[in-house]
Every structure is written in structure tokens, then in C-alpha cells.
Amino acid sequence: MQIVQISDLHVGSQFLQEKFDILVNEVNDLNPDVIVITGDLTNEGLMKEYEECKSLLSKFNTKKIITISGNHDYRNTGYLLFKKFFPFETVNELGDDVVLVTVGTARPDRNEGEVGYRQNLWLERTMKKYKDRVKIVAMHHHLIAIPDTGSDQLTVVDAGDVLRTVLDSKVDVVLCGHKHRPWAWNFRSLTVVNAGTATSERVRGFFENTYNILTINDKKVQVDLKIVGGKRLPIDEIVNNYSQFPDE
To answer: Would the pTM count as exceeding 0.90?
Structure first.
């Protein structure tokens, strides 16, 4: 199974149409089973941005697109529009071996993320129902701080509770967006994968527009980073070869 994770399109004033056109061609050539968009589809949550984004996403050829709201999508009462334009299911059984569950972390008029006690309890009970499957949780806000993203006050405010839940329920992968910086943290059986921005001019740390490709074989997950219009490489290479001062 192949899953493409795209994040932080920011359709609106920060949107790069030329990058999106390349992205569509690349992803359609991959022909993935599923596309997961981990938030900030729009820049200001405006009706015209939602309408444009809906039209743009129709250019992808895939069996299923799963969308998650971000803090930018919730601006200007955009939270009232998200479900209208992008209806979604929280539990997605992707074949017999993979389940992907989405968690809403965006809140109106707040930039930081929150899962909340009830949703966290629901997540734990839901994930424990699925044994002998690859379990993926997708959310917008980053669960763990990421290098090169400045002073971090915008992570999931109840991240400790969520981490305990995903570890206790044996989640394999958590997919996050929000910070526009590709990265991955590995905790033995759990990998927390962060996507860069696919089509926004506001790149950070890794100064390219990127998205992630997950390949699942025999219940093992390989995560590759793909530069829009550029090379594909294992995301672990970005982590293992990281240097804040690359010229030294």
C-alpha cells in the first residue's frame, strides 16, 4: 500500500500554483492508494479559498483523499465551512492490514493545538480495537517539537497524554503537519512523521516544498521525503545527516 501525505497547502495569498501543478503530476504518476492532507488547506479559512481548494483537489487521481483541518482553516469561522467542503470519516480502514484514524487538533481562534480528554480517550479505545494491523494516526499540529522551527509554543498542549495513548495502544505512525518542516522522531515501535509545506512559499528549516510517501509492505512502514520537482529520499536521511551549521 502507498499513502501520500501532503500538508499545509495554504490556498490563498501564500499559495504557489506552479508548485501545486508539479505536485499533482508527481502524485498522479505515483497512483497512491490514499492521499492524506494534514491540515491548513486554506490560508485564512475564507469561502473563496475553500471553493478554490475543492476545485484544486479534484485534479488528484486516487481512490481516497482524507482531509484534516488546521488552525488556518479555522480562521474567520472557517470551521463552519470545513465539513461542508471536505466531509471526512475519522476511522478509515484501508484494506485488511491498515487503519488510519484522524484526530482534530484545531480550535477556533487559536494557533496551538489540543486533542482534549474525550477525544484522547476515544482514540485509545478505538485503536485498541485494531489488533494485527498497521495503525496510523493523523493530525495537524505537531506532537513533538521540531528543529529549526524557533521557540515552540504551538505544539499540542496535551501532547504528553496523547503520546501515552499512542504508545499504549501500539500505534505505528503519527502523521503531523503545521510547522512546514519535514522531520521524523523514532521511538522504537512508534514513528512521528512531520510533513513540510507542499505548496506554500513559507518553507522553514528545509528550504524546499515537500511531501511524504509512505510505503507499507508486510506491516512495515517506509517513509520517504519527496521534494516537489526534485529528488526522493528516505526521511531518515534528513534526520541522520542534520546539521544546524552545514558549512562547518
So the answer is: yes
Give the SS3 label for residue 87.
Answer: coil
Helix (H, G, I), strand (E, B) or coil at 94: strand
Asked whether the CA dihedral 190, 107, 126, 222 is positive or negative, the reply is negative
Helical segments of the chain, H only:
17-30, 47-57, 79-85, 117-127, 159-168, 235-240
Give the tens place of pLDDT for each residue, 13-51: 999 999 999 999 999 999 999 999 999 999 999 999 999
Residue listed under C-alpha cell 534528513: 238
What is the Cα–Cα distance from 114 to 178, expressed in whole angstroms? 13
H or E element, residue 232: strand 232-234
Non-local CB neighbours of 112 within 8 Å, separated by 6+ positions: 71, 141, 153, 154, 155, 156, 157
| Residue closest to 65 by CA, chosen among 49, 84, 87 | 87
